Amino acid sequence: MKTLTFKFALLSAALLLTLGFANPGTAGATPAVGKPAPAFTGIDAQGKMHALSDYKGSIVVLEWTNHQCPFVEKHYATGNMQKLQAAARKQGIVWLAVLSSAPGEQGYLESKGAQAISKSMKAKHTAKILDPKGIIGRMYGARTTPHMYVIDKSGTLVYMGGIDDKPSTDHDDVKTAKNYVTAALDDIAGGKPVKTPVSRPYGCSVKY
User: Fold this and answer.
1) Residue 85 and residue 114: Cα distance in Å, rounded?
2) Where do the DSSP E strands lie in the chain?
3) Cα–Cα distances in Å, from 163 out to 6, 31, 173, 186?
4) H helix or E strand, kind and range, residue 16
5) Which residue in 61, 40, 71 sits closest to 153, CA to CA?
6) Alpha-helical regions (H) of 33-167
7) pLDDT in tens, the chain (208 residues)
8) CB 181 within 8 Å of CB 52
9) Which terminus of the chain has fewer Cβ atoms in its 10 Å neighbourhood, N or C?
10) What angle do CA 47, 48, 51 make, to 5 degrees?
């Protein structure tokens, strides 16, 4: 009887994993720097489809966002994020903000709301991808807002982690912070390996 019960438990566990009932924050393979970035397809706030493969040959920055998160607010209220976005796009870099908040959770927005928030925050990203089921977020192991990723022209993930080295909501910290995203983009532009390819992300938890 004990053997039968044990086998049933194993079968049930396997079934739960197959159906996707495993911990959503850890489901799927973990992305790795130096490896191809996980391929994804998503729809932006304007209803346009975006696939990572569309941008092969371009550098891509992914920014996990949530307008109600004070860590995100710090970077937008100071104009820091918009400045980074604008500078990147001027260099031909694709900047995709990803919103993975689930319906009913903090930061969740549908298309019109997402458009309005981007406008009010004066965001300069290429597009805001809506990911209410958390598919892209879990694929990348995104844990915080902001959580940043840089993908080079070959489609290789070359940076993932925090936006900078000042894990606070203090607006003044932006002035003295070392920005890891800017540093990574500068290294790529200089034909050098990214000096700091991984850092600890900080911010609010992604609201899956």
Assistant:
1) 17
2) 41-44, 49-51, 60-64, 94-99, 127-130, 144-145, 148-151, 157-161, 204-205
3) 46, 17, 12, 14
4) helix 2-18
5) 61
6) 70-77, 80-90, 111-120, 135-140
7) 433 333 333 333 332 222 232 233 334 457 999 999 999 999 999 999 999 999 999 999 999 999 999 999 999 999 999 999 999 999 999 999 999 999 999 999 999 999 999 999 999 999 999 999 999 999 999 999 999 999 999 999 999 999 999 999 999 999 999 999 999 999 999 999 999 999 999 999 999 9
8) no
9) N
10) 135
Which two three-digit tokens encode residue 13? 């566990």
Find tokens 């970077």 and name the residue: 75
Other CB atoms within a 10 A radius of the CB of residue 85 amount to 20
Report residue 66 as tokens.
């949530």
pTM tops 0.70, yes or no? yes
Q: Take residue 90 and report the two structure tokens written for it.
A: 């001027």
For helices 80-90 and 180-189, the axis angle rounded to 10 degrees is 10
Six-digit token string for 193: 């390996």
